[in-house]
Design brief:
Length: 167
């Protein structure tokens, strides 16, 4: 790994959400709907969704939400909707710092706001070996079942559910 970047975090707001759209467009093969951006802004929770800044420039972002676990109420999970770092800044610790910041926020709030949160998870396209290795190797996520036809407009359309038990 090249020299790690000293990252600062900042909130995603109505005033800067277009920067999130630009990061996502540059990093992902899919286009997120307007409702995605509105939901992230409405969340107003910098612990779960934030920008990564380096020298005052947005170089990445993570967007996470709390959702109910299917068939397991009242348990909940943190769902990482997106975690992206612009290509020129990858391999320098920005993505790790973003994910670690969400895990740290969980640790801080696990007996309060996140009392019912028992895991963190995300979907990763089956061909995205770098992302699978990133989450399983650095953070101890487990590769769960393949979800067929999860994506509509990219090939391959299948993904894996990656998850990590928190409690």
């Amino acid at each position: 790994m090249r020299k790690a970047l000293k990252i600062e975090f900042g909130p995603i707001t109505e005033d800067n959400v277009e920067q999130l759209r630009k990061v996502n467009t540059a990093c992902f093969p899919i286009q997120y709907q307007e409702t995605f951006y509105k939901d992230v802004v409405a969340q107003q929770n910098e612990g779960l969704s934030k920008f990564a800044y380096w020298n005052g420039l947005v170089i990445g972002a993570v967007c996470t939400r709390v959702e109910d676990l299917p068939d397991n109420a009242p348990n909940q999970r943190l769902y990482v909707m997106t975690c992206a770092v612009l290509a020129a800044y990858r391999g320098r610790g920005a993505g790790s710092q973003l994910i670690q910041s969400v895990l740290d926020y969980y640790e801080k709030e696990k007996d309060g706001e996140f009392n019912n949160v028992v895991e963190i998870c995300l979907h990763v396209q089956i061909s995205n070996n770098d992302a699978i290795k990133f989450y399983t190797g650095r953070f101890g996520f487990e590769q769960g079942p393949m979800v067929e036809n999860y994506y509509r407009r990219i090939d391959p359309p299948h993904c894996y559910l990656l998850y990590k038990k928190l409690k």
